[in-house]
Amino acid sequence: MAYALTLGTVSFFIAVMWGKPLITLLKRWGIGKQIRVELPGGHQVKTGTPTMGGILIVVPVLLITGVLNVANLWGMNLIGQSTLLLFFCLGSHALLGAVDDWQGVKGLRARGEGMSARMKSTFQLIFATIIALVLYFGPPHWDYVGVPGLRGPYEGGFFRIGPLIIPITIFIIVATSNAVNITDGLDSLAGSISSIGFASYGIIAYLQNQVYLMAFCFTVVGALLAFLWYNAHPAQMFMGDTGSLALGATLGLVAVMTGQWLLLPVVGSVFVAETLSSTLQVTYYKWTKRRYGEGRRIFKMAPLHHHFELLGWSETQIKERFWLISVLSGMLGVALALI
């Protein structure tokens, strides 16, 4: 644990020190957020705020993980080989998100939109499939699941599910990546909740004696805390898809690697609520439009944080209350992992 917390601290200082230069650079390159006109009025003042701030999170984590893996080649046992898959997951999804952000900012598609949903989903599926196949066929052959309250026949009380883990892993990575992306709509919201998710799974990894997985999780937490330093309301930068897609996919992979992926909806309850609100809103609107000729809505606006904005909650109130729910959810998730 001391090793993991030290890496988290190093990650924080690396990230926080180059935050200001990064903001300056993003402004110089004109990489500013384009705010949709239908969002609540308070969001319009954020137009032009630097986006792609996920770089601040991703680069220190990749740097630290990469250096420790290089040290392994020199015979120093500083990080487990399993972190290479996490390295690929974080890096590949960050690159995908960066392309999406760049296209959106530079208006390479109509109305300044980013990459098409179909193209983005295709790459997400490709990356997730590669990860799932390596996870299953490569050592140490991850194909297990923990069920709270039940003791499995394998080490740690797990059940093995064989090749079924492949489609499950693909679904978890893609779904979690999109869930964090949907949640990223208010200052500090996605970043603070992601930090709780990684810290919770870091503790679960510690309880399983997966030292290097724990170390990776807290390295991410440190970088996230540095990002929140600049993303606190009023935000000086946004993470964009560069951060949200990468964080979500990597959190999903971490959950699979602990075998406690059934607890991900608990630990990430806010992400689940945000995603469900958007899905229900779109589905209900389309159904009522076909049935009654006029689309109707369940929420004032989706995802859920915009609904509460229109109810009169301030941006800070929503973030703090969602964060409190996330903390409690993380505590419950760790508790269930011990059963």
From TrEMBL:
Q: Name one GO cellular component term.
A: plasma membrane
> Does this UniProt record's set of keywords contain Transport?
no
Q: Where does Mg(2+) bind?
A: 181, 241
Keyword Cell cycle in record:
yes
Q: Which reaction does it catalyse?
A: UDP-N-acetyl-alpha-D-muramoyl-L-alanyl-gamma-D-glutamyl-meso-2,6-diaminopimeloyl-D-alanyl-D-alanine + di-trans,octa-cis-undecaprenyl phosphate = di-trans,octa-cis-undecaprenyl diphospho-N-acetyl-alpha-D-muramoyl-L-alanyl-D-glutamyl-meso-2,6-diaminopimeloyl-D-alanyl-D-alanine + UMP
Where does the sequence pass through the membrane? 6-26, 53-72, 78-100, 121-138, 158-177, 189-207, 213-232, 244-263, 322-338
What's one Pfam family here?
MraY_sig1
Q: What class of enzyme is it?
A: transferase
> Which GO molecular-function terms appear in the entry?
metal ion binding; phospho-N-acetylmuramoyl-pentapeptide-transferase activity; UDP-N-acetylmuramoyl-L-alanyl-D-glutamyl-meso-2,6-diaminopimelyl-D-alanyl-D-alanine:undecaprenyl-phosphate transferase activity
UniProt keyword terms in alphabetical order: Cell cycle, Cell division, Cell membrane, Cell shape, Cell wall biogenesis/degradation, Magnesium, Membrane, Metal-binding, Peptidoglycan synthesis, Transferase, Transmembrane, Transmembrane helix
Which pathway does UniProt place it in? Cell wall biogenesis; peptidoglycan biosynthesis
Q: EC no.?
A: 2.7.8.13
This protein's cofactor list reads: Mg(2+)
What the entry lists under InterPro entries is as follows: Glycosyl_transferase_4, PNAcMuramoyl-5peptid_Trfase, PNAcMuramoyl-5peptid_Trfase_CS
Q: Which PROSITE patterns match?
A: MRAY_1
Q: Which NCBIfam families match?
A: mraY
The entry's family comment says:
Belongs to the glycosyltransferase 4 family. MraY subfamily.
Q: Which HAMAP family match?
A: MraY
What does the UniProt record say this protein does?
Catalyzes the initial step of the lipid cycle reactions in the biosynthesis of the cell wall peptidoglycan: transfers peptidoglycan precursor phospho-MurNAc-pentapeptide from UDP-MurNAc-pentapeptide onto the lipid carrier undecaprenyl phosphate, yielding undecaprenyl-pyrophosphoryl-MurNAc-pentapeptide, known as lipid I.
Name of the featured protein: Phospho-N-acetylmuramoyl-pentapeptide-transferase
